[in-house]
Amino acid sequence: MKRTGRCPKCGSTDLLAVEPGLYNSFPTGLFSNARIQRYVCRSCGYTEEWIAEDSMEKLRHSWDAPPEK
Ligand SMILES: [Zn+2]
Questions:
Q1: pTM score above 0.90
Q2: Ion ligand 1 — residues with CB < 5 Å
Q3: Could you tell me the distance, in angstroms and rounded to a whole number, from the CA of residue 13 to the centre of ligand 1?
Q4: Which of 1, 19, 41, 48 is deepest in the core (most CB within 10 A)?
Q5: Domain residue spans in the chain?
Q6: Distance (Å, rounded) from C-alpha 18 to C-alpha 40?
Q7: Which residue in 18, 62, 58 sits closest to 36, CA to CA?
Q8: Taking 90 as the threshold, does the pLDDT of residue 64 lie above it?
Q9: In the predicted model, what is the mean pLDDT of the chain?
Q10: What whole-number distance in Å separates Cα of residue 45 and Cα of residue 8?
Q11: How far apart are CA 35 and CA 42, in angstroms?
Q12: Among positive and negative, which fits the CA dihedral 50, 14, 45, 22?
């Protein structure tokens, strides 16, 4: 969907890309969040979520800290 520009469920190309905003985030640690880019099909309502490119580095290092004792 992100790369094909087509809904994998119904085949529609009427897609809406929702830019990452204040509430489009995914926790990667106690005090950090990765931003989420969403794609919505305006034909059937299917949504696809991707971590924004600029947050991928955070995600790769998420929950790496040793647990508190
Ligand atoms: Zn669809």
A1: no
A2: 7, 9-10, 12, 41, 43-44, 46
A3: 8
A4: 41
A5: 1-53
A6: 7
A7: 18
A8: no
A9: 85
A10: 11
A11: 22
A12: positive
